[in-house]
Every structure is written in C-alpha cells, then in structure tokens.
Specification:
The complex is a heterotrimer of chains A (314), B (307) and C (360). Chain A has a domain of 176 residues: MetI-like (MetI-like fold, Orthogonal Bundle), CATH 1.10.3720. Chain A has 15 helices and no strands. The longest helix of chain A has 35 residues. Chain B contains 15 helices and no strands. In chain B, helix 5 packs across helix 11 and helix 11 crosses helix 15. Chain B is mainly α. With 360 residues, chain C is an alpha+beta fold. Chain C has a six-stranded mixed sheet with strand order 6-7-8-3-9-10, with helices on both faces. A five-stranded antiparallel sheet of chain C has the order 13-12-11-14-20. A five-stranded antiparallel sheet of chain C has the order 15-19-16-17-18, with no helix packed on it. The chains are: A mainly alpha (314), B mainly alpha (307), C alpha+beta (360).
C-alpha cells in the first residue's frame, strides 16, 4: 500500500525562486549527506532497472546468465497463457477499479462537504479500510464471499434458497470479487484527496452562485467539477499505479484461482522469479510492467509541467 | 443631521410572527436522502469489520451454521488465544505472536531510518545548493512509481552477496530504501515552507550543515515527523511483498504469517481463528489510524493538490 | 434603481445576538458605506440583505418588495465579494451570462445584456479571457458586470479592496467612484478602512457591536461625531482626546485640564453644562496650531516626535503624559524636547461625557 504523497504544483512554481544561500565550498557537507540518496538512486533505482532489463534479454533460468538472446524471452512471455490471462485480468480490474473508486470517492466527498452532522465520524469510517493491509482485506473478503459459509449462505438462511453469490469460485466472475475488495479499501483514499480539493475551492463562489440563482447540483457540475481536475488527475495516477502493483490482495484472496482465472502480472512475475526459476522470463515481464507504468505516467507528468510553466509565465 | 439612528418604531404591534411559517425547514427530502446515502455507505464500509469481529468470537459450531451476520450466541475468547499462541504458521505452531514481535522489530528501526534519511535529504535539497541534487531528486521521484518486481531480483542477489539477505538488517535496509522517495518528498515540501531567513540567521550565527540540521531544523519538524511516523509505521507494518522476500524465515512479519495461517492449513479451516488472527494483525495500524485522526489524513494528502 | 429599507432586524448565531433591532434606510442611487472594526456586524448585515444569511426577526425591503425570506436570486441584487468570486474555469462572457442562462432567459436577451454591461465597463475586449488572465481592476469590473447583467437594483460590496496593495486600492477606489457616478446605482459597501469610507460614500453608517452608531454624510460624521468611538475611528492620525472638566467662569464656560484651558462658550451643547462636569475634549490634529510666540495659548507641551510627511508634518506633543498629534505645515520644524505653545480653535472641538462617551 502506498500513500499519496505528491509534489506540490501551484505553490512551488509561483513563489519566487529561493536565493542561493550558500557558497560553493560549504556544500561539501551537503554533498556528503546526500550520498546515501545518490547511492540509492543510482544503485537501486537506476541500477536494478537496468540490470533487470539486461537480464530480460538473456536466457537466465535459476541463475542469471550473461548471454544475449534477443527478444526470445518476450516472445515466450506473450505465448504463455498465464501471462496473457493476467494482462486481460489486470485490464478489466484496472478499468472497473479506477472507475468505481473515482465515482464512489467523488460522491462520498461531495456528500461529506454538505456540512452534515457527524462528518468526522463518517470520514473516519470511510477511510479506515485504507489503514488495513491488503492481505487483511483480501482475507476478510475471501471469508465473506465464501459460498458455503459466507454471504451466499447467510442470505439463503434468511429465506432466499436460490440466492447465488459464488463469484469467488467462478472462473468468469472471480475478477469482480477482487474489484469489490479493492474498491472497499481504496475509495476512502480518493474521497480524502477529492475532499481536500473541495476544501480548496473559494467559499464565496457558492455565495456568488446563490445570488446568480444556480441550484446546488448545477454548482457542483459547472463550477466545482472543472476545478477538481488536478485532484482527479492525482487520484487517477495513484489508483493506476496501485493497479499495476496489485499483488497482496490476490495472494490473500484467491491465490490467482480458481485455476489461473484471477492471475495478475505482479504475481506471475513473483512466481516465475522464485518458484519456477524463470528469471529471464520474469525479467521480461517486469520490463513490460515498467513500460506500462511509464506510459501511464508520461501524459500526466507532461500535463503538469505544461501547467506549471503556464503559471510561471502568466 | 447627525442624529443617531435608533428610530422609534411606530408600529410595535406589526405582524412579526410570519417567520414561523416562512422559515425554511432544515429537513427537506434532499437532506434526508443525503443522510440515507451516507448511512448506507457507512454500512458497506463497516460490514467487513463487523463480520471479522463477530466471526472471531464464535465457536466453530456456530460458524458451520452459515449465519454470517448473526451475533455470537456463545461468545468465546478461545479463537483469539489460539490465533495468538498456537496457530500454525508454516512449520511451527506458536501462533501469530511470533509475527507480531517480528513486525515490531522490523517497523521500529525502519521507521527511524527512513525518516532520518528523508529529513536529511529534504533539508539538504531545500537549503543547500548541490549541483547534481535536483536531477537526482527527480529520478528518485520517478522511482516511487516503479513496480517492486522490476527491482526485486537484483536486490536479492546483491543482498545475498553481502550476507544480508534474509536477515533483519536486510529487511530494514530494504524498507529504508523504498521509503526514501516518499519521505524525501514529504520533508522537502515541508522545508520549502520554512522561511529561508531562519536558515540565513542560523548561518550568520555560525551554524554549519550538521549543527543547523540537528539543532534547528529537526526540532522544528515535529509536526511533519509525526505525519511521517504515522505513514511509515502503517506502510511498513502492512507490507507483505518485501517482508515475504527479504525478511528471512526467522523474521517474517505479521502479514506474511497471517497469510500462512489462513491459506496454508490442511484439514478443517478454523475460520474463527483466522478472523481473530486477521484482527490481531490489523490492530496496530487501526489503532494508529484512530488515534492520529487528522494527522493520518495529512499524511495521505501531503503535498497533494493545492499543498 | 432600488432603495432598501430595514426594520427591526435581529440576527443570531447559535443563540448569540449579533445584530438586534437594527433600522436602516438606504436611498435609491446613494452610495452607503457600512464602516466599522472587525466583528461589528457590517458583513453580517450585508449578507442578510443579500439573503445569504437567515434573519431571526425583522423585515428587509428592496425596491418596495418584502424580501425577508426570499432567495438571493429573487432579491434583485448583485454582490461583489472580497475575492471577486469569479468562476475560474469560465470565460468572462460565460461568467457574466451564467445567472441569466440558469434562469432560462432568451439567448438574444442575454447577449444584449452582456454586450451592454461589457460596453459600460470596458470589458468588450476581455470577453474571451479567463479570470486568471485579468488584472485586479478588470476582475472588479467583471464582478460588477455580473450584477449589471442580472439587472440588479442594488449592488452590494463586501470589502472588495481589502486584499490589494495600497496603490491598486487607490486606483480601483477611484474607478468605483466614477462607476457609481456613471451608473447612478444604489450601492451598499462594507469596509473597515475609513479612507475608503470617506472618499466613496454619500453617507457613512458607522457600526459597532451590531448597532449603527451614526449615519450621515462623510463631512458630518467627520466634523460632528456622535460619540468617542466614531470620533476616534475616522481620521488619521485619529482625534486627540484630553480628559478634564467644564468650568463656569466669569467669561463663559471653559474646558480645563492640567495642560489645557479653552473657552468653549460657543460650543452647541445639547444640555446646559454643569460646573465641574467631567468631560473629554476631542480635537483633530489639523485643528491644533503651533504658536511658538503666541498669545491666548490653549496650552503648552514638549515636542516628543516629528514625522515629516512631505507636504506637511505630524508633530507629537507630550502634555504631562497626554500625547497630542498636531498636523502642522512643513515650513517650521519645532526642535525636539523643547516646550512649545499651541492654540485650538473652539469652533472645531468636540466635547464628550466622560462616563457615557456621548457627545455633549
């Protein structure tokens, strides 16, 4: 589970640049202090990525080998049914999860913004799932969706003998159970981000709208929503990155089953790295994951840097 | 002309009780609908917690009845005791308490180390000019988005080479590294809000890099350190993947042990023990969440949107 | 243009009375300024006229219609907020036309109104810009334009200049005054800045603790303040206050204090003064004249500080612990720590009761 810490946009770029506060020779201590960061970035972040990409072009099995076999690992990868299933699953999961979280999170944020009684209590309730680990979430929902003893059984006992809710053992529907569990966990996050965005909107805008005779729902649609663009963008990126990384929930809830029906790329890679000793194949898969993340992030980064440049020049 | 305006009101008996009829009611249908929606959402979110608690206090006979939402008739602490001290986590059956203490051992040093480096980096980046620092920081930020799987295998090999793989030191080191982007960003944004005049005054007073850091900046950072502690404690405690790979069999964190208890048993699955174990694993982060309240929220949205 | 009448207004927040039994008449076409310190209720009053705050009791009339319980949109008002509250993601043209569009006004009519407002306010070239691309003055005009397009009868202003730096504030103030002259609109303006009040208002209502202390033209409120609060609020440096007594002497009534002696026989007392009645003398800095070699001095004091202002200077005197500010011309600079005499013209003083602080 990652938290949403994001670089400031408007505040950073519209304040005056900091005057350079130190002479060059004094920077030695600062350089020394930043050495761990430098090592981390170069050695870990850049180094491992390069290493993984390199290995993906080799024929490594249990141990890394130094040979070069071109794209054969990638070809093998996309011929593996488990991998293509995992891609298919992650796409469906991603779309449903992000959509559901954004919609639910938005409505929860708007409802909480209406000056309701018990706002603090409600907010605490909506957000606590985010404090739990993904493993715990997966296990609880696995239990609740257990056909014999969980929700299906409980509803049948209440007098609906034909009620069916055995998605978790159904190959076609198991992916939706993952969506439910993940949305339960993460909507609170979207709500929190959007609520912060809502609170940043000029309060007198609603007064001006009242005088203009704008009804509340129209105000949210035409005045508030356009201003929440950055907040939605932030939420989307956070959720999207979470989608690519999803692992814990699957392991806890379905172990990729039944069969391979709920396999996801992260789990595929871990299995091939450690259990099936296919290091080269797994590295190829990791590289594909990395490229996907980059593809998702690039437009967002680009949009943000254009926006901040616009602010500086206006 | 300069009379004070408290005019004598001629019609003191003017009809004034209209307000009762005209006053807008607070309880319009829209308002009621709003509360209905909010309450149903709350039920959706609270349901799993309720089920977890209810199941964990039931004896197995009640669970086999399949009444998930019923309250326990013969509530018992037995599942909790079992989960804590006798559940089987793989080869041994000493309960999930082993995982609890492991997690504590992992979380405390990792939190301290990652916060220390985050603060140090944020401080150096904010106030001191190092030529390559900006570029490195940019790559670090990018690193926060890279999926772990890309980096895991090389790290495993590297740690194995220095005999740190599967040790407590190794997992702490890993958590420190992976926590660095978020922590550095957090502190850098915080220090960006500190007036640079404060720093300059300290320089004029003769402070050097380390002295200013330890004696001025760190003490000033208590609010953001609180936020960072909350974030790191929760994140690291809830981590599964890194603990699974790097901690080694003696140091497996509670989340990994939990998964072992539940998903790898043969014979009848003791659902009440499972739920008790899940509750136990979630107690610490939930407690942190409930106690920290607004700080938790600050941690989530640190630096987001309009800062 | 509409007039506004307020009768016996009562406003409460959580059971605490913020405004009680307030009466106010705003004439059609006048520029009324509600002036007062923070928390005096001026913004609350304005918001209740707008219908943004519910009143507890009383009546609000706009243009002859009882609007006490009407929605803001039905009151025929327009409002300019401190932050101008322009819809940030809409162009100027959309900002202006949003209200009528919601109300279902015909497109042709909306276009006509927008064009008229834009011409009056010189916004025609800016119609396709967004608020972030406008200057402060332009934003103020768009905010006013919104009210114009709605064909408002009354324009309400909630401290629109408070966020701006001094120079811009002066420019926009003058623009606003010219606009009022051109439009002839009824304007109610809230501020804590007495300079804005003096320069803009046709009448000033000075408020304190939810009550109107005095409502009159700027000149009257300035020259004949009705109590010490109003006297001290207007004018900078503010009016000098000296405590003393009224004494009946052979040659008339005198105000006497340890440092002053002034013949106030010609003062228009509301009630005949009593001998030895405690009083506070109020005199503005510009009505004290320094006279180094004078006769008929009102008193003398030590020069403690001189602040040159360019065209004039402010000389601070220390009269046995009482500090007096004198607005003197820049010709003659008195030496510090020297004793100097001064005169006060009795026609310009104000006398207040020591206890009640009301004008005598």
């Amino acid at each position: 589970m990652t938290f949403a810490v994001l670089p400031k946009t408007h505040v950073e770029t519209t304040t005056l640049p900091r005057p350079q506060p130190v002479r060059r020779k004094r920077a030695a201590a600062a350089q020394l202090a930043l050495l761990p960061m430098a090592i981390t970035v170069l050695g870990v972040y850049i180094g491992t990525v390069l290493w993984s990409v390199r290995i993906s072009f080799s024929s490594s099995k249990i141990f890394p080998k130094n040979d070069f076999v071109g794209f054969s690992q990638y070809e093998r990868l996309f011929a593996t049914e488990r991998w293509t299933v995992s891609l298919h699953n992650i796409a469906i999961f991603g779309v449903l999860f992000i959509l559901a979280c954004m919609v639910l999170g938005f409505f929860l944020a708007v409802f909480l913004d209406q000056r309701v009684r018990g706002e603090n209590v409600l907010r605490t309730i909506f957000l606590y799932p985010y404090a739990m680990s993904f493993v715990a979430t997966g296990l609880v929902w696995q239990w609740m969706l257990n056909p014999g003893l969980g929700i299906q059984a409980a509803v049948r006992n209440l007098g609906f003998p034909d009620f069916q809710f055995d998605w978790i053992v159904n190959q076609d529907k198991v992916i939706y159970t993952l969506v439910i569990a993940a949305v339960w966990q993460a909507s609170g996050l979207v709500m929190a981000v959007l609520l912060a965005g809502l609170r940043g909107i000029d309060e007198s805008l609603w007064n001006a709208a009242r005088i203009d005779g704008v009804p509340r729902w129209r105000y949210y649609l035409s005045v508030v929503l356009p201003q929440l663009g950055p907040a939605f963008g932030t939420s989307f990126v956070l959720l999207a990155v979470g989608v690519v990384k999803v692992f814990d929930v699957v392991v806890a809830m379905t172990l990729g089953g039944p069969g391979n029906a709920s396999e996801v790329p992260a789990k595929f890679i871990m299995d091939n790295l450690f259990n099936r000793a296919n290091v080269g194949l797994a590295s190829a898969a990791s590289t594909v994951m990395l490229l996907t993340v980059l593809a998702l992030l690039m437009p967002w980064w680009y949009a943000r840097s254009v926006q901040s440049r616009k602010l500086v020049h206006s | 002309m300069s009379a004070v305006v408290e005019r004598i009101n001629p019609s003191a008996a003017a009809p004034v009780q209209r307000k009762a009829a005209r006053r807008k009611s607070h309880f319009t249908p829209a308002r009621l609908g709003l509360y209905a929606l909010l309450v149903s959402s709350a039920v959706f979110f609270l349901l799993p917690l309720y089920v977890m608690l209810a199941t964990s206090f039931k004896p197995m006979e009640e669970i086999r009845l399949g009444r998930l939402f019923a309250l326990p008739l013969n509530a018992t602490f037995e599942p909790w005791v079992q989960a804590w001290s006798t559940a089987c986590t793989g080869l041994e059956c000493r309960g999930i308490q082993v995982g609890f203490w492991n997690s504590v051992q992992i979380v405390v040093p990792s939190t301290i180390a990652s916060i220390f480096f985050g603060a140090l980096n944020g401080y150096a980046l904010s106030f001191w000019r190092v030529r390559w620092a900006g570029w490195l920081f940019g790559v670090l930020m990018f690193g926060a988005f890279v999926p772990y799987q890309v980096m895991i295998y090389p790290l495993v090999r590297s740690l194995a080479t220095v005999n740190l793989f599967g040790t407590l030191g190794g997992i702490v080191f890993i958590h420190t590294i992976f926590g660095m982007p978020v922590m550095t960003l957090l502190f850098r944004n915080y220090y960006a809000g500190v007036p640079v005049e404060l720093f300059k005054a300290a320089r004029i007073d003769g402070g050097g890099f380390w002295r200013i850091f330890f004696q001025l900046m760190l003490p000033m950072s208590l609010p953001i350190i609180a936020v960072a502690v909350i974030m790191q404690m929760t994140n690291i405690w809830n981590d599964f993947l890194l603990g699974l790979v790097f901690a080694g069999r003696e140091n497996l964190p509670m989340t990994v042990q939990l998964n072992n208890v539940i998903n790898t048993t043969t014979g009848e699955r003791l659902y009440n023990v499972n739920m008790a174990a899940t509750m136990l694993t979630s107690l610490l982060p939930l407690a942190v969440y409930l106690i920290s309240g607004r700080w938790f929220l600050r941690g989530i949205t640190a630096g987001a949107v309009k800062g | 243009m509409s007039n506004v009448t307020i009768e016996n207004l009562d406003i409460q927040f959580s059971g605490i009375s913020v405004i009680s039994q307030l009466n106010l008449d705003v004439h059609s076409g006048e520029f009324l300024v509600l002036l007062g310190p923070s928390g005096c209720g001026k913004s609350t009053l304005l918001h209740s006229i707008a219908g943004l705050i519910d009143v507890h009791d009383g009546r609000v009339d706009i243009g002859g219609n009882d609007v006490t319980w009407a929605d803001p949109k039905d009151r025929g008002i327009g409002m300019v907020f401190q932050s101008y509250a322009l819809y940030p993601t809409m162009t100027v043209e959309k900002n202006l036309s949003f209200g009528p569009r919601i109300a279902g006004v015909a497109k042709a009519e909306i276009a006509r109104r927008v064009e008229r407002a834009a011409t009056m306010l010189q916004l025609t070239e800016l119609l396709h810009r967004k608020p972030a691309q406008l200057s402060g003055g332009q934003r103020q005009r768009v905010a006013i334009g919104r009210a114009l397009v709605r064909e408002a009868g009354v324009f309400l202003f909630d401290e629109p200049l408070s966020n701006l730096d001094a120079k811009l504030r002066g420019e926009l103030r003058r623009e606003l005054k010219q606009l009022h002259h051109r439009l002839g609109a009824t304007m109610i303006y809230v501020t804590h800045d007495q300079v804005e009040a003096m320069t803009l208002a046709s009448r000033i209502a000075v408020m304190k603790d939810g009550k109107i202390q005095q409502i009159d033209t700027p000149a009257s409120v300035y020259a004949r303040p009705v109590n010490m609060f109003v006297a001290g609020f207007l004018g900078a440096p503010s009016m000098n206050f000296v405590e003393g007594k009224l004494e009946q002497r052979d040659d008339g009534t005198h105000f006497v204090s340890p440092t002053l002696n002034i013949d106030v026989s010609s003062y228009p007392f509301a009630n005949p003064p009593q001998h030895q009645q405690p009083a506070v003398l109020g005199v503005r800095p510009e009505h004290i004249t320094l006279s180094p070699h004078g006769t008929q001095l009102a008193g003398s004091a030590i020069v403690s500080l001189v602040e040159p202002m360019g065209s004039n200077q402010v000389v601070w005197l220390d009269a046995q612990g009482v500090s007096l500010a004198v607005d003197a011309d820049a010709q003659f600079t008195p030496a510090l720590d020297n004793r100097i005499g001064f005169t006060i013209a009795p026609a310009h003083v104000s006398l207040f009761d020591l206890q009640t602080q009301q004008r005598l």
